[in-house]
From TrEMBL:
The organism of origin for this protein: Falsiroseomonas tokyonensis
Short name of one Pfam family: DUF218
InterPro entries (UniProt xref): Cell_Envelope_Assoc, DUF218
Stated name of the protein: YdcF family protein
Keywords noted in UniProt: Membrane, Transmembrane, Transmembrane helix
Transmembrane residue ranges: 48-67
Domain DUF218: 83-249
Length: 266
């Protein structure tokens, strides 16, 4: 069942991701109008309307802000930390394999903040959880790239705990819990992108992590409206699509019972 749900989620997202769907609707509508079908104006308007709205309005920021503001960092960092859990999604396995050096994407702060926290808490274990999110599971895992990056930055291999089988956030939480068996009284920090934190915290709570503290990174919005129009159009499209993916993920995970709340809160 897990494999089927994973495959289904990949196929559905590939077909229905907003930017791709809007383009398909616009092209379909244009073809229908060109062939004299008046109803083609509706898919054409929907497709172009999505791009126009993201271009002219702060759609990306308004979709992202509630997600990024849901779990602020603690005002007073904990004095002692058992471990720091870094979620996958920030590394490029194929590029790392092709070039031989760790390759990171736009969520690179997950990795750099993990190292910074490891230096702040020298007794804490640094945990990375991530296999591969691709349908083809034969390639290198994210955990392999994480090991290469962390050790090249000077962290001893003995401090690292690498979980290399998970394919999504639910499996991140479940497999890491199984691997580490956290005990009552232990304090764990969860490092992931701020917009991804609500779903992540809900999933980790459902998996049995009783004391886990959100440590969000990789913010893409600011509360000042002056920042909402700063990004170029392609970046706005990417941010809007990512935010919608998180909202859809929250609903899907709640329906599947993978999170105890629709919109988890501190």
């Amino acid at each position: 069942m897990q494999d089927l749900l994973f495959l289904l989620s990949k196929v559905l997202w590939a077909l229905l991701r907003p930017n791709t769907l809007a383009l398909a609707l616009a092209v379909l509508g244009l073809l229908l109008v060109w062939r004299g079908r008046r109803f083609g104006r509706w898919p054409l308007a929907l497709g172009i309307g999505w791009y126009a709205a993201v271009f002219a309005l702060p759609v990306a920021a308004l979709l992202t802000l509630p997600l990024e503001n849901r779990f602020p960092r603690p005002a007073t960092p904990p004095a002692q930390v058992t471990g720091i859990i870094v979620l996958g999604g920030a590394v490029e396995q194929r590029m790392t394999e092709a070039r031989g050096i760790p390759a990171l994407n736009g969520a690179a702060e997950r990795m750099t903040e993990g190292v910074a926290l490891a230096l702040r808490y020298p007794e804490a274990r640094l945990v990375f959880t991530g296999g591969t999110a691709a349908i083809d599971q034969s390639g290198p895992t994210e955990a392999e790239t994480a090991r290469l990056l962390f050790t090249s930055l000077g962290l001893p291999a003995g401090r690292l705990v690498l979980e290399n089988e998970s394919r999504n956030t639910h499996e991140n939480a479940v497999y890491t819990h199984r691997l580490l068996n956290p005990q009552p009284g232990e304090t764990w920090l969860l490092v992931t992108s701020a917009s991804h934190m609500p779903r992540s915290m809900g999933v980790f709570r459902a998996a049995g992590w009783s004391r886990i503290i959100a440590w969000p990174v990789n913010y893409t919005t600011g509360n000042d409206p002056a920042y909402w129009w700063d990004n170029p159009f392609p970046t706005k499209l990417n941010h809007a699509e990512w935010a919608l993916r998180e909202w859809v993920g929250l609903v899907a995970y709640r329906l599947m019972g993978r999170t105890p709340a629709l919109f988890p809160a501190p």
